[in-house]
Every structure is written in structure tokens, then in C-alpha cells.
Automatic annotation (TrEMBL):
The keyword Repeat does not apply. This is peptidylprolyl isomerase. PROSITE patterns: PPIC_PPIASE_1, PPIC_PPIASE_2. It catalyses: [protein]-peptidylproline (omega=180) = [protein]-peptidylproline (omega=0). Keywords: Isomerase, Membrane, Rotamase, Signal, Transmembrane, Transmembrane helix. Gene3D superfamilies: 3.10.50.40, Porin chaperone SurA, peptide-binding domain. It comes from the Bacteria. Pfam families: Rotamase_2. Residues 150-242 form the PpiC domain.
């Protein structure tokens, strides 16, 4: 995995950490330490015990992510680093296709903020890198696949054993039943069933679904379901939440990204905001 791909993966993981923490801290009763959240026989597990265990497992990592955010913002202001909305949109689309976890809403402001922070960090780390236009264009020509987004589809699925069951499922959907509820109730694919049938984004190049599924979803509209699809394991019904059109970016559209990519690959430093902690005068709960 290249340094830039590593940075993208790290940012995606950081987003999940922040979203998870935000979920718990946003609940109005999260401080109610003596509230019972589970029982085993007569033994109680309190919210305080639960949150304490979460902090022990994930506290340092999550706090580091929060500190990194503040460091990036402070250093970006110091060095007058800015990224365009176009760059953020391009990167967000790439995250959707490559790292889109199941059930996540990529229109959420938190995702957009984290993607923007990732780009700002790249700009900070590579702010002194200079390349000629010839060097940039040559890199682009040799690595064009890095600047292409394959067509992708955010899908949910229900897998049943027979065509009759599939037709019955479609009848219930047409009568107003929830796709997610039906997936959890009857889908044979346990992993996606537990997510309400959600598969996340599946690209044209993916082997996660059978080819006939992709052939079918190409012909349906967003926010609609397919007819029964014959599969190796039975019959499937897929729901198309969203389609991302494939695109090949021209050099002029990604010139700044090419420069960052080249610079990141040549860096001796780790791809991390911790490179700026000293300059930002960070002190934190976990020491050095």
C-alpha cells in the first residue's frame, strides 16, 4: 500500500472512531454512570463500567484523532493552507468507492470535514515540494489508474432460496414493507442481513457480488429494487441506494493532487499529523 493510500485508510478509520465516539457522547444520558445497560442474571453492568471499558480500549486512539484534527487546523491556519470544494468532492467520491463502510452516510458533514482535514494534512506535509509541469504530467501518464473512479453502486440485498419467495418479497415491498426489515427477517446472507441487507458500495471491478447482479443494477433507478436475480445460492433482490458514475480525470483536473501524490511518495516522514505536534505545542492526557 502506497503512502497516500495508507493516509486515505487512516483517515477513513479516524472518521469511524470519531463517529462512534460522537454517537455515545451525543446521547443525553451518557453521563448517567449508574444506569444499568445490561444484566447477566442478577449481575448488572452499569453505564460507567461500559464507558470505562470503551475508554480503556479506544480512548487513546480516539483522543489522538481529536488532537490531530486540532493540530491540522492550527497548522493550516499558520501556513495559510486551503483546499477547494472540488478537491474535497473528488476525494469524497474516492472514499465512497474504495472505503465506503456499510450503512454510512457520506453526505454527513463529519465525513466531509474529515476528508478535508486529510487533504489539508497532505498539503501541510508537501507544502515545500516543487515539481516541473513535465514531471507532473509524466507521473500522471504513468499512473492514470490512480486518477480514475470506477462506476460503483451502493446496494442492499435480500437473498432467498426460491423464486417464489423472491416474488413474495417483492410483493411485500410494493405494499410498503421496509427493505431493511425484510432483509433482517429472511435474507440467507447472514452478514448483510445483520446490516439490514446493506452491502455498501460495490464497484464495477468488484468480485463481492455475482456478475448478474451488476448487470441488473445498471438498468434500475436509484431508490428502487430489482426483479428476482438467479444466483448460485438462490434468488436475490437488490436495492440501489446510490450510483457513482465512473470518471477519468484529466490532468488539469487533478494537477494539485498529482503534486501531492508525488511528494507524499517521496517523503521520509511518516504520513501523520504527529509531525506537527511539537510545533503546535501539544500536551495530552497520555503524556508523550
Amino acid at each position: 500500500m502506497g503512502k497516500r493510500q495508507l493516509l486515505m485508510a487512516v483517515v477513513a478509520l479516524g472518521i469511524l472512531n470519531i463517529l462512534t465516539l460522537s454517537f455515545f457522547l451525543s446521547r443525553p444520558d451518557w453521563r448517567a454512570g449508574k444506569e444499568t445497560v445490561a444484566t447477566v442474571g442478577k449481575e448488572e453492568i452499569t453505564r460507567q463500567e461500559w464507558l470505562g471499558e470503551m475508554e480503556a480500549r479506544y480512548g487513546e486512539e480516539t483522543l489522538r484523532d481529536l488532537v490531530d484534527q486540532k493540530v491540522i487546523e492550527k497548522m493550516a491556519a499558520k501556513y495559510k493552507i486551503k483546499v477547494s470544494d472540488t478537491d474535497v468532492e473528488q476525494e469524497l467520491t474516492m472514499y465512497k468507492v474504495l472505503y465506503g463502510p456499510q450503512g454510512q452516510n457520506f453526505d454527513d458533514e463529519q465525513w466531509q470535514k474529515q476528508v478535508k482535514l486529510g487533504l489539508m494534512l497532505e498539503e501541510l506535509l508537501t507544502k515545500d515540494a516543487v515539481f516541473s509541469d513535465e514531471e507532473l504530467e509524466e507521473y500522471y501518464r504513468q499512473n492514470m489508474s490512480l486518477f480514475e473512479i470506477p462506476a460503483a453502486y451502493r446496494l442492499s440485498q435480500i437473498i432467498v432460496k426460491t423464486e417464489e419467495e423472491a416474488q413474495q418479497t417483492i410483493k411485500e415491498l410494493e405494499e410498503g414493507s421496509s427493505f431493511a426489515a425484510l432483509a433482517m427477517e429472511r435474507s440467507l446472507d447472514e452478514f448483510s442481513a445483520n446490516q439490514g441487507g446493506e452491502l455498501g458500495f460495490v464497484s464495477e471491478e468488484s468480485e463481492r457480488v455475482e456478475p448478474q447482479v451488476l448487470a441488473e443494477v445498471r438498468g434500475i433507478k436509484e431508490q428502487s429494487w430489482s426483479r428476482p436475480i438467479k444466483l448460485e445460492t438462490g434468488y436475490g433482490i437488490v436495492y440501489l441506494h446510490e450510483k457513482v458514475e465512473g470518471k477519468k480525470y484529466a490532468f488539469s483536473e487533478v494537477k494539485d493532487r498529482v503534486r501531492r501524490q508525488m511528494a507524499v511518495e517521496q517523503m521520509d516522514l511518516p504520513v501523520s499529523a504527529r509531525n506537527f505536534w511539537s510545533e503546535a505545542e501539544v500536551s495530552w492526557f497520555y503524556g508523550k
